[in-house]
Amino acid sequence: MKGKHVTGFSAAEEAGYAKDDVPFELEDLLKERGAGYSAVDPWQPHSITDGRLVTGQNPASAQGVAEKVIAILDSVDALQPAKA
Fold first, then answer.
1. What is the reported pTM?
2. For 58-78, what is each residue's pLDDT tens digit?
3. Residue ranges of the domains in the chain?
4. Rounded Cα gap, residues 30 and 12, in angstroms
């Protein structure tokens, strides 16, 4: 993830959830690995595109992620030659 601009569950969103199942906080791990991590207030929609990589902060971000993926797919389709 080094050098990529991303988002994912924030430390505030992860507080109190699945601590026995997931032994790290995603926000901290992404930052440690050199990602340009950003977040908004907990449980608010937030999605980021970095090239063809699309990430969302939480479930509230699903619509924004879907819209960004569709935009990327549309741009890829536009580059393909028309089929007869």
1. 0.83
2. 999 999 999 999 999 998 766
3. 5-79
4. 15
